[in-house]
Amino acid sequence: MPVRYEGIKAEHEAVRTRAGLFDVSHMGEILVEGPNAVPEVDRLVTNDVSNLPVGRALYTVCCNDAGGILDDLIVYRLEKEKGLVGCNASNRDKIVTHFASHLSLGTPWNDVSDSWALLALQGPSAVRVLEALGAPEELLKLPSFHVTRASLAGVDLWVARTGYTGEDGFELFCASEDAVTLWRALLEKGEPCGLQPVGLGARDTLRLEARLMLYGNDITEETNPFEAGLGWVVKLDAGDFVGKDALEAIKAAGVERKLVGFEMVGRGIARHGYLIVVDGQRVGEVTSGSPGPTVGRNIGLGYVPKSSSKIGTRLGIEIRGKVVDAVVVTTPFYKR
């Protein structure tokens, strides 16, 4: 996936105001099938998959025994006995190994990442683009976090109303050999709607404005869902899962730090790894940071002590040896 096609700012604006097309085929996909598919996946994630209806999708995290986050995932219930788990590309081998070691013998599953492609059509004009491609009315009206079968440009695919930009949109799963056909058809039919290809750079600024997590930055195996602000995807009363005992203990004890959003008050851009200072003491690091093209401010995320996590708390970001003022603010920074 290229960092940019035309330029990060232009591509960011296209997604916010019109539509953008991402080739995110590097993402990982695992199919789990059979009568035990749902309960088996449910044991490996923190959210409640057991009650997920056919045709629905669910955001969740997958934890280790200590409650550390192995990855954040989306689980799609494609059919009664078929589930799709979407994971981050950098974690594909780790998640495949984790599933292989925890799924019960006799539960059919398959890493289909190399045989599936994934295109993400995002932005307020996404529906118009699919309409121009001849999508049926029921697909255009697909609710958020739903998934269905469809055929577009002669390509059979699964379509989900999900994304990673903070905008409305669709994610299109198809066979790898059909990806070029689908990509070209979308760009051709979407051109009158202002559709343009978008790279990794704008993907990062879009997701940061929407406070969507980036694995390896904002969440890792050294972070737990409660301090990351993901306690809402941990259903401790919904059944057993890997890491549940540790997460119960963490919740009972309370967290010592929290992931907060901040905006720069002084001149400067916070970048990943920059130190966060409170009252002259280094207390953490920036996990994500960049200019926010839509919000018009330099923004970032980082872990700070719980006592410094309240909205309005003043922080300092150490930038090239100088501490620059910042302030904790409400997130997401941008909401459509």
Q: How big is the Rg? A: 20 Å
The CATH superfamily name of the largest domain is: Probable tRNA modification gtpase trme, domain 1
Order of helices and strands: HEEHEEEHEEHHEEEHEHHEEEEEE
Query: What proportion of the residues form beta strands (DSSP E)?
Result: 25-35%
- Named CATH architecture of the largest domain: 2-Layer Sandwich
The general outline is: globular
Features:
single chain, 336 residues, alpha+beta, Gyrase A, domain 2, Elongation Factor Tu (Ef-tu), domain 3, 2 domains, 6-stranded antiparallel beta barrel, 8 helices, 34% strand, globular
Fold and architecture overview:
- The protein is of the alpha+beta class.
- The protein has 2 domains: 8-206, 2-Layer Sandwich (Gyrase A, domain 2); 256-336, Elongation Factor Tu (Ef-tu), domain 3.
- The chain is 21% helix and 34% strand.
- The chain contains 8 helices and 17 strands.
- The protein has helices at residues 8-17, 37-42, 92-102, 126-132, 137-140, 179-190, 200-209, 244-253; strands spanning 19-23, 28-33, 57-63, 69-79, 82-87, 109-111, 116-122, 147-152, 155-160, 169-175, 195-197, 257-264, 275-278, 281-292, 297-305, 314-319, 322-329.
- Strands 8-9-10-7-1-11 form a 6-stranded mixed beta sheet, sandwiched between helices. Strands 12-15-14-13-16-17 form a 6-stranded antiparallel beta barrel.
- β9 (155-160) and β10 (169-175) form a beta hairpin.
